[in-house]
Design brief:
Beta-Lactamase; 22 helices; 6-stranded antiparallel sheet; alpha+beta; rod-shaped; about 35% helix; about 850 residues
């Protein structure tokens, strides 16, 4: 049927139609139409003949006795063909009054055509009589010519609306202009192309009730006359406001959940929420205000007039936040009325702001909180989680949208409850992050230190999230005799447990360093400690599990995780001697430091890292390296160079250090260069590194002499000490130093073996006296009894010294003491 349907076919309606004009005697005066299709006779054979000769059995009309009907009649008839068949037809007869007297006009159509005509008439009548589905006909100018919807079916106009009779009006005169524009575009396309529009959903708020949300589904098709020329557009209108609003709200809830749900940054959550509410059309202006204590991870409290709130995020539909209200990062306090409403956990709705503007005309501070110039209504949603207030979300709509109502307030409350849980999780996460970072920083040494041996600068860069924070450390430990120990390590874990474990390991390293053990021996003792901590943790967890299994109420002791974190921890320990310009280091699974020589050349230290702590019982290897004056050592954790571009990052790291050496940067400047180059943003894992610029003690500040193990040399050693102290202008310390040296030399001669001993004086920030012998037995300090003839030498040394101690050497041991130089100044004054 050439694109048409059987519901309506122009050919079927008009193709079999026959019109006969009869005179007063019942003769056919004129015949129009396709008579052959009805009576199987041509039209020229009928004109001039009596109507009865057509052999049509008109029901209720005897054409022989009464050639003209007494009145207008209609009915069914059977037409008998010459072959004996019959055709059912519908006829209508109308009396006429012409100049030549009375007559009759008869229309005859086949039964099928008659039925189709009746169906079409009934269809149009039914469509225009019902009001559940709208039917409108527009001309080519899109003005409404017919409409089945009555004003009563659309509802009464509101107080702010303007009643409009839709007939003869364009769509923009009936629907708000911002909604009508898109509808006009769609109907114009249908009128121009003939392509139908099917089930297109769009907002169509009426001019007579602009505050009411309204959405319709439109289906449209072009109307054509018999010559297929366009004459208008028919539109079927279905009100789908409830479904539209429900779909919009579900979409808004889903969008908020997707953009906010997986975030643990409170500011980011606030920004996503404000942007989402505006982009989804729920608000024209949106802000998120949080308590300042909450932003810092503190515990929330009730809304009070003295509690400061900070505007964390803002969003505007046109991208311009109004200057007359509080901007982003502004701090303010709520008034009593707003605090009371928000403490009750219910949204505050103002559908019309005219009265409020009058009340706040003399209160600009309060108006700045609530009243943007373009706002027509506003809604304030409390953010409460687990019974505590976190903040509020103020929303505004302009005249371009209907004012807020209770349905909007309920939806906003649901959104606020969900977002508040995310914010509270982020708050707790922030608190934990700050706690971990504070603990981590409290366990680290000062970032910069300066001694005669090295100038150091350390940096701890926390991870972007708690999941990557905790467990890296560095340390600088001053040792005796112008030496310094430099340590860097990393615990295999994150969070509070990792920070606590790091603190235990760092304390252990400091304690072992005080024993002045060589690096490889120190790491061996540290490895034993890691094994013991792991075993203790495993036993504690097993006991806690047994207690929980026996009791229905599981009571778990608060155990700080150490074992799993200690096992696999790494550490590098390095000792630098400023007198000899030599450093010795060993590694327990830790990356080897980078060495950059004064000329900018990077050098491989040749150190092979041993196993991580607690992993194996293999011995650790050490390496000793001579360092020229002004060398730069960079110790770092593996997370500094982690990632797919490790080789590139190592190259950038080395290049940055070479630049620092060429520019003669201080250690602090070099550390700053590393942070700027490799860590411009917080890393995924926390990073610690230590940069050290080595120094050498001047040769005139060290005096050393070797003596044979002969009691006669005790006087020579006192003379040696006295001469050196005079050269250093430290005569005031001569008495105490001579006594100390006499006791140490006497012990070396008596108990130090047959080999010679060495006496060395080092002038640094303190005066160090050293006596080295070939005996590896460590002396012990004890309190001698009154009857003892000896045993008071070390006690006397301890009383005269600021500090004293002993350390093993390759050929024996060294006893040392330190005298404060301030003592000499005080004696001199």
């Amino acid at each position: 049927m050439s694109g048409r349907t059987d519901l309506f076919d122009v050919e079927q309606v008009s193709g079999g139609r026959v019109v006969l004009l009869l005179d007063g005697g019942g003769r056919v005066v004129m015949c129009q139409g396709r008579l052959r299709t009805v009576t199987d006779r041509p039209a020229e054979d009928v004109c001039g003949r009596h109507v009865s000769e057509l052999r049509i059995d008109f029901d209720g009309w005897d054409t022989v006795s009464a050639p003209l009907p007494p009145r207008d009649r209609s009915g069914w008839a059977d037409v008998r063909h010459q072959d004996g068949s019959t055709v059912r037809v519908w006829w209508e007869a109308h009396r006429t009054q012409g100049t030549d007297g009375r007559g009759c006009l008869i229309e005859i159509v086949p039964a099928l055509v008659a039925v189709r005509r009746e169906e079409n008439t009934a269809l149009v009548r039914a469509l225009f009589q019902q009001t559940k589905v709208g039917l409108a006909i527009h001309d080519l100018d899109l003005s409404t010519t017919r409409l089945n919807l009555t004003p009563e079916s659309l509802g009464p106009p509101s107080a702010v609306g303007t009643a409009v009779d839709p007939l003869g009006q364009g769509i923009e005169e009936v629907v708000l202009p911002e909604d009508a524009a898109a509808v006009n575009d769609q109907l114009r396309r249908v009128a121009d192309t003939g392509e139908p529009l099917v089930d297109w959903v769009h907002r169509a708020r009426r001019r007579d009730a602009p505050e009411l949300e309204r959405a319709v589904s439109l289906s449209a098709f072009r109307l054509e006359d018999a010559g297929t020329h366009p004459i208008g557009v028919a539109v079927i209108i279905t009100d789908v406001t409830d479904q539209y609003v429900a779909r919009q709200r579900m979409g808004l809830l889903q969008s908020v959940a997707e953009r906010v749900g997986g975030n643990l940054d409170m500011r980011r959550i606030a920004e996503e929420l404000a942007d989402c509410l505006v982009s989804q059309g729920f608000a024209d202006l949106a802000a998120v205000d949080l308590m300042e204590a909450v932003l810092l991870g503190g515990e929330p409290s009730d809304f009070r007039t003295d509690v400061p709130l900070r505007r964390v995020a803002v969003s505007a539909h046109d991208g311009q936040w109004p200057a007359e209200v509080y901007a982003r990062d502004a701090t303010f306090q709520l008034r009593q009325r707003e605090s009371d409403n928000l403490n009750l956990g219910r949204p505050l709705v103002e559908a019309e702001l005219s009265r409020l503007r009058e009340l706040l005309a003399d209160d600009p501070a309060h108006a700045r909180l609530l009243l943007p110039d373009t706002a027509a209504s506003f809604l304030v949603v409390p953010l409460t989680a687990r019974g505590h207030a976190l903040g509020a979300v103020p929303l505004w709509r302009t005249r371009r949208q209907p004012p807020y109502g209770q349905a909007d307030a309920e939806l906003a409350r649901v959104i606020g409850d969900r977002v508040a849980l995310s914010l509270d999780n982020a708050r707790r996460y922030t608190r934990e992050q700050r706690t971990v970072e504070a603990l981590q920083r409290s366990l680290l040494p000062p970032p910069a230190s300066e001694t005669s041996a090295v100038q150091t600068a350390g940096r701890y860069v926390p991870a972007a999230t708690t999941a990557g924070m905790g467990g890296t450390w560095f340390d600088v430990i001053p040792l005796s005799s112008a030496r310094v120990a430099m340590v860097v390590g990393e615990v295999a874990g994150h969070g509070l447990g990792a920070s606590a474990t790091m603190g235990r390991l760092r304390t252990a390293v400091q304690t072992l360093a005080d024993l002045e053990l060589p690096p490889r021996e120190l790491l061996t003792h540290l490895d034993d400690l890691a094994v013991r901590l792991s075993e203790a943790e495993a036993e504690a967890e097993a006991e806690a599990g047994e207690e929980g299994a026996e009791s229905p109420v599981r009571l778990v002791r608060p155990v700080v995780p150490t074992g799993p974190l200690t096992t696999g921890a790494t550490c590098l320990y390095c000792v630098y001697d400023a007198v000899e310009g030599r450093c010795e280091m060993a590694s327990a699974g830790h990356p080897v430091p980078l060495l950059v020589l004064p000329g900018g050349e990077a050098r491989d230290l040749g150190l092979k890292p041993g196993p991580a702590l607690g992993v194996g019982r293999n011995p650790f290897e050490s390496v000793t390296v001579e360092l020229p004056l002004g060398s730069l050592l960079a110790f770092f954790t593996g997370s500094l160079l982690a990632g797919d571009e490790e080789g590139l990052r190592r190259h950038r790291f080395a290049r940055t250090l070479r630049t620092a050496v060429e520019q003669q940067d201080t250690a602090a400047d070099a550390a700053r260069r590393v942070v700027d180059e490799l860590l411009p943003v917080p890393p995924d894992e926390d990073v610690s590194f230590l940069v050290a610029r080595t120094r050498r003690l001047a040769s005139d500040r060290v005096a050393s002499f070797t003596f044979p193990a002969d009691p006669a040399v005790v006087a020579q050693t006192r003379k040696f000490v006295d001469g050196r102290l005079q050269a250093w202008n430290l005569d005031q310390l001569a008495f105490s130093v001579e006594l100390i040296v006499s006791e140490l030399v006497t012990n070396a001669i008596r108990y130090g073996g047959d080999g010679p001993f060495r006496l060395r004086l080092i002038l640094d920030t303190v005066l160090t006296c050293e006596v080295s012998d070939t005996n590896e037995t460590q002396p012990r300090l004890r309190r001698a009894r009154l009857t003892d003839e000896g045993g008071r030498g070390l006690f006397l040394v301890a009383q005269l010294s600021h500090r004293w101690g002993s350390r093993y050497t390759q050929h024996g041991k060294t006893l040392w003491t330190e005298q404060l130089l301030t003592d000499a100044l005080e004696l001199d004054s």
